[in-house]
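Support request from a user on the community tier.

User writes: "When I paste my structure tokens into the form, the page sometimes reloads and wipes my input. The last time it worked, I copied everything first. Here is what I submitted, just in case something in the input itself triggers the reload:"
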């Protein structure tokens, strides 16, 4: 038990770093680890649910820090955040009915598609010079899709929102700063649904695992946010893709 808690604490620290620097509120770092530590037939359901709770707290803290630093460009939040929240409701309820093996397979497939899209399609590693606003179709259809997929897999949506915003011409620091508030509706909806639909007292959520992860992530967020924005944009983008590859290896 102690070893498991120490492992979760260590990965909580890592999730704090990725929350600030890459907008990963917890999902890609914590889902594979929680699933491995918990084990059992519902391991991935527990991992996704617990990750949603951790992501909710981490993203809220990073959002406050981003607002104070003036990095959150509010014109990109509305109405995208509303449709992300609506999509999250659909995705969270669908996930409670999905077999654990299917969740694992879709999680890995989601990572593969995102990695290939970031590397092969123009606009992520080197964004366009001119910034463009989000159109109504992108905000509506894109928001619903991001919310549904992110909530279904417990990953927050940053892996879809960051590339989307990069292709609108935003630097990595601004795209990541927006990824955290855009993850909040996903994390909130998923946390509530999983807490009331699972078999345990807290649903599918493992409170002890969540506490161990947050014990590591929250102090780390407070420290790392002081150094956010110092990475060169190209290095920031390449490292982002590298973390996705590491998460894929962990899941497989």
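"...and here is what came back when it finally went through:"
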């Amino acid at each position: 038990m102690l070893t498991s808690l120490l492992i979760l604490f260590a990965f909580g620290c890592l999730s704090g770093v990725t929350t600030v620097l890459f907008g990963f509120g917890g999902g890609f770092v914590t889902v594979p680890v929680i699933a491995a530590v918990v084990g059992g037939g519902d391991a991935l359901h527990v991992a996704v649910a617990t990750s949603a709770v951790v992501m909710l707290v981490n993203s809220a803290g990073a959002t406050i820090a981003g607002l104070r630093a003036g990095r959150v460009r509010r014109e990109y939040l509305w109405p995208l955040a509303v449709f992300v929240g609506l999509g999250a409701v659909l995705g969270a309820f669908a996930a409670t009915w999905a077999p654990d093996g299917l969740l694992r397979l879709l999680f890995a497939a989601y990572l593969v598609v995102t990695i290939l899209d970031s590397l092969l399609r123009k606009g992520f590693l080197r964004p366009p010079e001119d910034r463009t606003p989000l159109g109504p179709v992108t905000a509506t259809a894109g928001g619903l899709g991001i919310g549904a997929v992110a909530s279904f897999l417990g990953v927050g949506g940053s892996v879809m929102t960051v590339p989307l915003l990069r292709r609108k011409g935003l630097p990595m620091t601004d795209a990541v700063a927006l990824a955290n508030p855009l993850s909040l509706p996903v994390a909130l909806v998923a946390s509530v649904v999983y807490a009331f639909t699972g078999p345990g007292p807290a649903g599918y959520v493992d409170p002890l695992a969540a506490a161990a992860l947050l014990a590591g992530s929250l102090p780390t967020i407070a420290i790392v946010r002081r150094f956010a924005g110092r990475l060169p944009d190209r290095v920031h983008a390449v490292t982002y893709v590298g973390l996705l590859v590491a998460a894929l290896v962990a899941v497989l």
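Agent notes: The reload is a front-end session timeout and is unrelated to the input. The chain has a mean pLDDT of 81. The longest helix spans residues 43-69. Escalated to web team.
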